[in-house]
């Protein structure tokens, strides 16, 4: 899909082509009720990779991989050194990004589990404030046919029986696949209709489509939410020869893995440049993270475990926020943050209160941290896998009834159960209360076993 004229039109050109009276009427019509000025509203972009570990960036010290664009993004905004996926597998984490709630609450507990339509999504929320919404890339939350590797396992049958594809979860425009996909994949769907396969690396094709859509929104002065969910570097690892060539000395498998990440990095560079060319970069909240820990050697940066493990290596992932208007001075933070924080942060930013909101929300608004006013996280992060829970509470971790601190130099959990009994008691009590709320939420769903 080639770039449209709308994509190449700058805001300056748009303003010249639009009368002052018409523009004023357009902006006034789209202002949220709570707003008192005509200043542009913040655009939101959620970028996410598939299986990229915390160590899979050069800014985190990977010995081979080069990620200059992600490095530049991290240097220009907020680099989260302790950013967590809500689950060590893809579908539950993706659900948490959209809902702000732990995926275990609505029984999205493994890969291929759907996101029930009863849950309120970030796309549904921002649409109430006049935002355009688009999803591009891997979905894996149900409703899209031909999902490689399966979908619909553990499907909640309660409430609405409609397909759980992006169009029924608040996205106006979607060009999406059911699960992971690679070069030449034949099962991409555009707003519910099958689209023909396209040539080139998946990251290039995905970004072509996303940038065309973003360009249309920018030309029309329409605030937007875009979820750009790369299918890379999930297997089977098929990089283009050009992307794999610089890494050939590490062997074919690694060369293709690194090549896929190089393509992701290149396209993050394309995205950042396009936002600047369209003159909307300053007022765009641009996030980047992965859906779970790394599944490849060296991916975790030495953190223990990996994908499928409820450990630092299985849940800690790259996390970056670039937002020049709100973060004019870059910084690095070790305050824990997670994928469940996207939803409450955006609702806090836009002043949205959803009347059908399901409670509780497990994430927190990160606006105080973004503004430099948060030094400690106010409540724990509940990470889940199966029946296991790992509570991240600033420097403390509770798992299987034991209290730990994670030693960044030794890269392992240090058992301090006997040293801080008051902290242990506090977190154990918090965990028990949290599990009780989860049990109440789960009771709302009947589950079809597959």
From the structure above, extract its key features:
single chain, 450 residues, alpha/beta, Alkaline Phosphatase, subunit A, eleven-stranded mixed sheet, five-stranded antiparallel sheet, 13 helices, 16 strands, 30% helix, 18% strand, disordered N terminus
Describe this structure as you would to a colleague.
The chain is an alpha/beta fold and 450 residues long. It has one domain: 3-Layer(aba) Sandwich (Alkaline Phosphatase, subunit A), CATH 3.40.720.10. It is built from 13 helices and 16 strands. Strands 1, 2, 3, 4, 5, 6, 7, 8, 9, 10 and 11 form an eleven-stranded mixed β-sheet that branches. Strands 12-13-14-15-16 form a five-stranded antiparallel β-sheet, covered by helices on one side. Strand 13 and strand 14 (396-399) form a beta hairpin. Helix 4 packs across helix 9 (252-277) and helix 7 runs parallel beside helix 9 (252-277). The radius of gyration is 21 Å and the shape is globular. It starts with a helix and ends in an 8-residue tail after the last helix. 50% of the residues are buried.
Helix content: 25-40%
Largest sheet descriptor: 11 strands, mixed
SSE ordering: HHHEHEHHEEEEHEHHEHEEEHHEEEEEH
CATH topology, by name, is: Alkaline Phosphatase, subunit A
**CA distance, first residue to last residue:** 38 Å
Low-confidence stretches: 1-38
The CATH architecture designation is: 3-Layer(aba) Sandwich
Number of strands: 16
Draw up the topology in text.
Blueprint: H1 5-8, H2 11-17, H3 20-30, E1 43-49, H4 68-76, E2 78-84, H5 90-99, H6 122-127, E3 132-138, E4 173-177, E5 188-190, E6 193-195, H7 202-219, E7 224-229, H8 241-244, H9 252-277, E8 284-290, H10 312-315, E9 316-322, E10 331-333, E11 337-338, H11 342-350, H12 367-370, E12 381-385, E13 388-393, E14 396-399, E15 402-407, E16 412-415, H13 421-442
Parallel strand pairs: 1-7, 1-8, 2-10, 2-11, 3-4, 3-7
Antiparallel strand pairs: 2-9, 4-5, 5-6, 8-9, 12-13, 13-14, 14-15, 15-16
Helix pairs in contact: 4-9, 7-9
């Amino acid at each position: 899909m080639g770039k449209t004229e709308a994509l190449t039109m700058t805001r300056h050109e748009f303003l010249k082509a639009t009368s002052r009276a018409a523009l004023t009427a357009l902006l006034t019509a789209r202002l949220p009720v709570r707003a008192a000025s005509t200043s542009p509203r913040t655009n939101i972009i959620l970028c996410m990779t598939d299986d990229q570990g915390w160590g899979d960036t050069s800014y985190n010290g990977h010995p081979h991989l080069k990620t200059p664009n992600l490095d530049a993004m991290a240097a220009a905004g907020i680099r989260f050194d302790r950013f967590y996926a809500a689950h060590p597998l893809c579908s539950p984490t993706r659900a948490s990004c959209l809902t702000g709630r732990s995926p275990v609450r609505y029984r999205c507990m493994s890969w291929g589990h759907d996101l029930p339509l009863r849950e309120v999504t970030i796309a549904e929320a921002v649409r109430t404030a006049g935002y355009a919404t688009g999803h591009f890339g891997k979905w894996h939350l149900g409703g899209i046919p031909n999902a490689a590797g399966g979908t619909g396992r553990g499907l909640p049958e309660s409430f609405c029986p409609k397909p759980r594809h992006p169009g029924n979860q608040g996205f106006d425009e979607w060009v999406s696949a059911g699960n992971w996909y690679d070069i030449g994949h034949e099962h991409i769907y555009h707003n519910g209709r099958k689209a023909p396969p396209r040539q080139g690396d998946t990251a290039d094709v995905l970004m072509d489509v996303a940038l065309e859509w973003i360009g249309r929104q920018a030309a029309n002065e329409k605030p937007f939410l875009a979820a750009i969910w790369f299918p890379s570097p999930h297997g089977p690892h098929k990089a283009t020869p050009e992307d794999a060539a610089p890494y050939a000395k590490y062997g074919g498998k690694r060369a293709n893995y690194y090549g896929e990440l190089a393509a992701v990095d290149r396209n993050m560079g394309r995205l950042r440049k396009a936002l600047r060319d369209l003159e909307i970069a300053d007022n765009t909240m641009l996030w980047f993270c992965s859906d779970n820990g790394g599944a490849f050697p060296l991916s975790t940066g030495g953190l223990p475990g990996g994908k499928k493990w409820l450990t630092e290596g299985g849940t800690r992932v790259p996390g970056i926020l670039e937002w020049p208007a709100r973060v004019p001075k870059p910084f690095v933070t070790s305050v824990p943050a997670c994928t469940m924080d996207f939803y409450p942060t955006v609702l806090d930013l836009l002043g949205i209160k959803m009347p059908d909101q399901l409670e509780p929300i497990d994430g927190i608004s990160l606006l105080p941290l973004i503004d430099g006013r948060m030094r400690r996280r106010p409540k724990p992060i509940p990470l889940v896998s199966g029946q296991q829970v790992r509570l991240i509470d600033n420097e403390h971790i509770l798992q299987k009834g034991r209290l730990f601190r994670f030693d960044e130099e030794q890269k392992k959990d240090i058992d301090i159960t006997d040293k801080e009994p008051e902290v242990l008691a506090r977190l154990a009590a918090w965990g028990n209360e949290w599990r009780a709320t989860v049990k109440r939420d789960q009771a709302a769903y009947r589950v079809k076993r597959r």
